[in-house]
Amino acid sequence: MGTMGDMTEPRWLTDEEQHVWRAYLHATTLLEDHLDRQLQRDAGMPHVYYGLLVQLSQAPRRRLRMTELARSAKITRSRLSHAIARLEKNGWVRREDCPSDKRGQFAQLTDEGMDVLRQNAPGHVAAVRQAMFDRLSPEQVEQLGAIMRVMAEGLEPTDAHADLPWLR
Description:
The protein contains 6 helices and 3 strands, in the order ααβααββαα. By secondary structure, the chain is mainly α. The protein is globular, with a radius of gyration of 20 Å.
């Protein structure tokens, strides 16, 4: 990042890069809205809550430390705490204190939460497939996967002290 005394010209986006950037923003906004509306309509929950249930369902004993869940979901601890409170109210998740760390807690997917996930997974997968994979060729799917992995690797620092919202 330049300083006031740094007179070098920024590397502006080319016209093609600008078109790609805007198309990316447009598509990802529409996709997230599409998936959120589908889950709100069919399951009464936002997409981010569904993602939390999925992560818990795939964890050993269907439970994760809250800090690990925040890190893997890429959301702040306060947003996670609010989401887990809502999921607890529905009976889909329960919190447990961590015996080895008095400040730590686990989130555990309940049997009821697992049932909700099983009931809603087919509709969600259909929405993902319709919005994304049915529109792409196998080659495009492969390319998109490669591109997203490169982007994610470049954006997620491995430094334990990185200033990332989900680590706060």
